[in-house]
Amino acid sequence: MNLNNISVLITGGASGLGAGAAKLFIDKGAKVTIFDRNLELAQTTATELGCAAVQCDVADETSVLAALAEAGKINGTPRILVNCAGIDITGRTATKGGPQPREALTQQIAVNLTGTFNICRLGADAIRELDDLEGEEQGVIVNVASIAGLDGPFGQTAYAATKAAVIGMTLPMARDLSAYGIRVVTIAPGVFNTPLAASVLRGEPDDYAGGVPFPKRAGKPAEFASIAVEICQNPMLNGEVIRLDGALRG
Amino acid sequence: MEINQQIAIVTGGASGLGADTVRALAAKGAKVAVLDLNFELAKAIAEEVGGLAVQVDVADGDSVESALATVKAELGTARIVMNVAGIGIGRKITNKKGPHPLDSFLKVVNVNLTGTFDVCRLASTEMIALDPLNEDGERGVFVNVASIFGYDGPVGNTAYAASKAGVIGMTLPMARDLAPYGIRVMTICPGVFDTPLAKAETGQEGFDRLIATVPFPKRGGNPQDFAKLACHIVENTMMNGECIRIDGAMRMGLMI
Asked: Could you tell me the pTM of the whole model?
């Protein structure tokens, strides 16, 4: 899809991978709206990049519907949905201190999985209602999983479960939406230089990149953005999960 | 790495996916060596893009060595190597005519798997001797071509699927072997593309039947889309050790 003048929605767009993606989509001429729970940070990022910001809790259907309507008013109904919003609550399944709290899983499911599903189902429904674009394609969904969803390290059972679920949704969702000319592709990033990774690792992501075969550093949000844009521009990519990790296996 | 001014090798570059990859690399400023069994076709593409045509049989070790030596002498050591050369045959493991002949199995494996391995081992040895390009210490990148048949192969494709699954399987350990030298290895797994190889295998009718099973877009892949992804892989340094399906969400069913 040609990105010029296309309305693009990026959840979790206030920081990290989402903000990196927003920057490149704007450079390509897209009209970007970033959704984030943190409105203040979203507005700061949006002002810096030159795009729109809308407060949204992706886990909450009412919030998603309201935010989608707001984005539609500002930039038109989004045809490209990039789901970067995510949280990571670390913790081992059981330790001497007892079992991992059930909420560690349910809270991550709410944001990482249900949040992604909410944006996909409500966003795709809105795309379906639009007048057809010229050409074969009507929309693209880019979901963000994690290599933890394929080979999760210790302390990541709950996070890995939610990301594996995003990976699992990819093919059936692509099949569901193929009739409407909407593609679905998932990116599974490794260690990236983001605030989320820094908080989970309790340090600079680059310092934890020693196990990455090559390049021996954390990924740059610009590199994530670059494959996200390639996915949107390449009509043959569909129903696939792409690792972006410098050959790292957890 | 930036493609501009780099030396690139594309095996099977004279037609199909390879030819459009040659064009895309040249359009981004690379000096491209077109390696192909069919020298006449290779010359035509090389002439079109101002590149170098070299005759090669990737299944023949001596031929690969001499082709790479020619590239080195004429253009220099390549930092971008794309292994697109491949062949296919349709034959069940056994049928009324008897068992799948071993020689046709080995022919497919020799071209698709051994040929890819041979080019990788020789070209990476040359690459290691080059200076790194950037602050990451990047020296080069291999883009190998497998197939979705390497994951879900239909009836009559044991040899082809084995050879392509072999290419998929080499990706991660080869990326790990070459990581200390700043050389990346990626694999693309195309679905049904509009190429001479695909149509020779299926015939027009079979091709149309296959395309009807692609979720979206419901058509044969355009080789230019393959080429675009191949160039993206070169340009995105974080991509390493991964196999990417490019197939319009197609999963191969039982039959072609």
From this structure: 0.94
Tokens (6 digits) for B186: 């990626």
Contact between chains at A240 and B244 (C-beta distance less than 8 A): yes
Does the beta-carbon distance from A215 to B248 stay under 8 Å? no
Please list the pLDDT of chain B residue by residue as tens digits (256 residues).
999 999 999 999 999 999 999 999 999 999 999 999 999 999 999 999 999 999 999 999 999 999 999 999 999 999 999 999 999 999 999 999 999 999 999 999 999 999 999 999 999 999 999 999 999 999 999 999 999 999 999 999 999 999 999 999 999 999 999 999 999 999 999 999 999 888 887 889 989 999 999 999 999 999 999 999 999 999 999 999 999 999 999 999 887 7
Active site residues of A: 159
Q: Determine the distance in angstroms separating the CA of B128 from the nearest CA of chain A, rounded to an integer.
A: 14
User: Where do runs of H (alpha helix) occur along chain A?
Assistant: 16-27, 39-49, 61-75, 102-108, 115-129, 157-177, 195-201, 221-233
Give the ipTM: 0.92
CA distance B52 to B81: 14
Taking CA–CA distances from B243, the nearest residue in chain A reads A242
Nearest CB partner across the interface for A183, out of B175, B179, B216: B216
Which H/E stretch holds residue B105?
helix B102-109
Give the distance from residue A93's alpha carbon to the nearest chain B alpha carbon, in angstroms. Answer: 30
